[in-house]
Amino acid sequence: MEVTARAPGKIILAGEHAVVHGCAAVASSIDLYTSVSLRLRSEDEDTIKLLLNDIGLDFSWSIRRIKEVLSHLEQRFPESKIGLASGVYAFLWLYTSILGFKPATVVVSSELPLGAGLGSSAAYCVALSAALLALSAPVELDKSQKGWFTLKAEAELVNKWAFEGEKIIHGRPSGVDNSVSTFGNVIKFKSGVMTRIDSNMPLRMLITNTKVGRDTKALVANVSARKSRHPGVMCSVLNAIEAISDEWCTIIQSNAVDDLCLSANEEKLGELMEMNQGLLFSIGVSHASIETILQTTMKYKLASKLTGAGGGGCVLTLLPTHVSGAVIDKLVEELESFGFQCFTAGIGGKGAQISFDHSS
Ligand SMILES: Nc1ncnc2c1ncn2[C@@H]1O[C@H](COP(=O)(O)OP(=O)(O)O)[C@@H](O)[C@H]1O
Ligand SMILES: C[C@@](O)(CCOP(=O)(O)O)CC(=O)O
Ligand SMILES: [Mg+2]
Fold this sequence. Notes:
The protein is of the alpha+beta class and about 350 residues long. It has 2 domains: about 1-195 and about 350-355, Ribosomal Protein S5, domain 2 (2-Layer Sandwich); about 200-345, 2-Layer Sandwich (Alpha-Beta Plaits), CATH 3.30.70.890. It contains 10 helices and 13 strands. The structure holds adenosine-5'-diphosphate, (3R)-3-hydroxy-3-methyl-5-(phosphonooxy)pentanoic acid (PMV) and magnesium ion. Adenosine-5'-diphosphate (ADP) binds near residues 54, 86 and 115. It catalyses: (R)-mevalonate + ATP = (R)-5-phosphomevalonate + ADP + H(+).
């Protein structure tokens, strides 16, 4: 029996980093997915295979030696890819905790850029947990279902396991990324509690990938260190970010009665993004490449902010409804002339899904 699970990436509209310290964030799923397919092998095969298509690494572990491998894993990573080792630790931990030592082949592939602020780590953990739980004994799913189906009662359990995986990759995740990847839509997240936000606004964002690699774990740790050096100032900044998240929710939930009202709301969101970015700069998570994007989009009177952990990664630019395709094309051309990569994605779609392959 083979199962494939897919889980979406996300954008954080407001509140990254502050959410790690108990303040509210607003996040939305995007329609770019990480897929994990899991095929159990016969008991006498005695191996667990992991194929990480996005980073071009394959592993094959003898089950009898898997504990030994767990303690020597880093030695098997090429020096240039050592930062990716935590994803393999998370795999082995989730696999053995949920499925035990059953032989299997697991293939991972993603449409998301890795380590760029779009929540690839959470999508990886959610898709992996969903595939593993789908073939584990305590979860009763109707395996005769055809095509993709959305998780229902099982979603909570998938989310819990994915959070444990995120802890291995991130150190101190807030839980917002795995929650929005599991449940989809637009959510508000604060101190581990998720509220679904029914947005009444058509939200268009240009996503620009600086292609500057960074590591969420290190950035989150730097913010915590700054907070312990300047507790009073940092609390004020983080509370200001929370106020921005709250206002985001109020605006996108409000009903714009006409086009004038809609563009006034879009203008307010743009201002909130600018303020959020300024505060993120003040806590030390911006980057020269991000500042270049901000200056460029400002020339087009468009507001931008980093999304995710920052330090490089992706930047969001709000595209209000009045902005024409020609203007967007010109902006994209200018941004891409710096070597950045621009794209758009559907915002607020479904969360994790599963599909059983009946042919195997
Ligand atoms: N498709 C994937 N294949 C292998 N590892 C992955 C994959 N997606 C995510 N990861 C793991 O997640 C890490 C990136 O997570 P992180 O630094 O939080 O960035 P982000 O979540 O913004 O993409 C990678 O270094 C790797 O360990
Ligand atoms: C910085 C943070 O708020 C978001 C990190 O997102 P990403 O891993 O950069 O996609 C951390 C967290 O909420 O766990
Ligand atoms: Mg991450």
